[in-house]
Amino acid sequence: MDKHILLMAASLALGATGAAQAQATVKTDGQFRSAFGLGASMSSGNTRASNLSITGDAVRATDQDKLGLYLNAQYAKSNGTTTGEQLRTGGRYDYNLGTDLFAFGGLDLARDKFANLSLRGMVSTGLGYHALKTTTTTLDLFGGLGYTRDSYINPTVIDSSLRSRYGYVSALLGEESTHKLSETTSFKQRLVVLPNLSNRGEFRANWDAGLAVAMTKTMNLTVGAGLAYNSEPGAGRKRADTLLTTGVSIRFD
């Protein structure tokens, strides 16, 4: 059996629990390109459950700079009770300072009802290095500073105090890569670690990855994985959240 059919079968076997990571085409011609993914599941009978996820990815690139935007949203219900409500969106602007060095600035927003997070906003800036750049693989390393401001749905104990809001400065260390595995299969991943400079020993980390298998020129079968870690999430809440998704995405080139 063709290996791409095997990949698709394995992806579907993971369960259509949400939209996987949409991957926009990147070309240095100054044109905006985007991709949007959708995944949904619904069951009835002994268990009534539904899940809807949407992802988006947009990129505008030239030889001098690049602007990337993203969106990840998920909503889930089980037996009439909401069991998932997450939203992450933001973007980053890169400006090349030379062949391999670039400067960047970013803005990220997040909401997670079940993590007691009404809104998290983070602005960041720093420098990056194009460590590897070929026709099939890219690898960027980057680092800088960020400022995060959290607002909580219910006041919670953070850093030994009951707070409804919490702001702090953090370092930012990360890497991201893209891989063209074949003519029809691509993979991308990104890891960011944010040590809290206001309270040493505390940190957040996010890792996201996505695999896309082309079914047509514009439609992909996609699988995504995400891990979010917070060393101080607040009383009664777990430090790590994971998400595995599969679905279909459409590119607009």
Gross morphology: flat
The CATH topology comes to Porin
CA gyration radius, whole angstroms: 19 Å
- The parts where pLDDT drops under 50 for at least 5 residues are 1-20
Name of the level-1 CATH class: Mainly Beta
Query: Please, how many helices?
Result: 1
CATH-level-2 architecture: Beta Barrel
User: Roughly what is the average pLDDT, rounded to an integer?
Assistant: 87
Strand-pairing-aware structural class: mainly beta
Major beta-sheet overview: 12 strands, antiparallel, barrel
CATH superfamily: monomeric porin ompg
How would the blueprint of this fold be written?
Elements: H1 3-13, E1 32-43, E2 49-61, E3 65-78, E4 81-96, E5 101-112, E6 117-133, E7 137-158, E8 161-180, E9 185-195, E10 203-214, E11 219-230, E12 240-252
Antiparallel strand pairs: 1-2, 1-12, 2-3, 3-4, 4-5, 5-6, 6-7, 7-8, 8-9, 9-10, 10-11, 11-12
Structural overview:
- The protein contains one helix and twelve strands.
- The chain is mainly beta.
- A hairpin with a 2-residue loop joins β7 and β8.
- The longest helix has 11 residues, at 3-13.
- The two termini are 31 Å apart.
Summed up:
The protein has 253 residues and is mainly β. 4% of the residues lie in helices and 69% in strands. The protein has a single domain (3-252), classed as Porin (Beta Barrel), CATH 2.40.160.
Features of this protein?
mainly beta, 4% helix, 253 residues, disordered N terminus, 1 helix, 12-stranded antiparallel beta barrel, 69% strand, Porin, flat
